[in-house]
Amino acid sequence: MQRGSALIVALILLVVAALLGIGAVQAGMMGTRIGRNAQLTQQAQLAAQRAIDSTLSQLATFTDASTAPATSVQNIDVDGDGTADFSVTLNRPACVAIANAKDYSYLTSPPKDTTWVIRAVASEIGGNASAEVTQGIRVRLPTSADCPT
User: Fold this and answer.
1) Which among 53, 43, 51 is positioned nearest to 124, based on CA atoms?
2) Nearest to residue 131, comparing CAs of 16, 39, 28, 48?
3) Residue 21, helix vs strand vs coil
4) Distances from the Cα of 39 to the Cαs of 28, 110, 128, 133, in angstroms?
5) Range(s) of the domain holding residue 57
6) Please, what are the averages of pLDDT over each run of 10 residues along the chain (149 residues)?
7) Rounded to two decimals, what is the model's pTM?
8) Has residue 124 been placed in a domain?
9) Are the CB atoms for 135 and 61 separated by under 8 Å?
10) Is 90 exposed, middle or buried (0-12, 13-18, 19+ CB in 10 A)?
């Protein structure tokens, strides 16, 4: 009789230990998934910022803004392996304000201070990660500049 009850108690303890082990493994896997999602979100933000930076570095972005396409797409490789990881859709920069530059009162035609907003949405190629970055920038343009709508 005692041998039978000891076997049952041992089996119950074995099942409890197995359940605890399975729970610990699942908790570890969940932490790994959370970390991976956080990494992909940061990489998506980086890809969007890279696309914005490359666009902002070109003066024609602002001087020829009215003729630029409404959206453009860039493929960005964030990990340096030569394969694009994210597809970034850039909206054409929008001019939100224009004014004569200050401290140019001695000139009859001072340059223009313009304020622009640009938006980029990065989506992981072959995955679900995405991020949106909106950035404002102030650019001093020549006297002839206007604020296209």
Assistant:
1) 43
2) 48
3) helix
4) 17, 46, 13, 16
5) 2-141
6) 77 91 89 88 93 87 80 90 93 90 76 92 92 93 80
7) 0.74
8) yes
9) no
10) buried
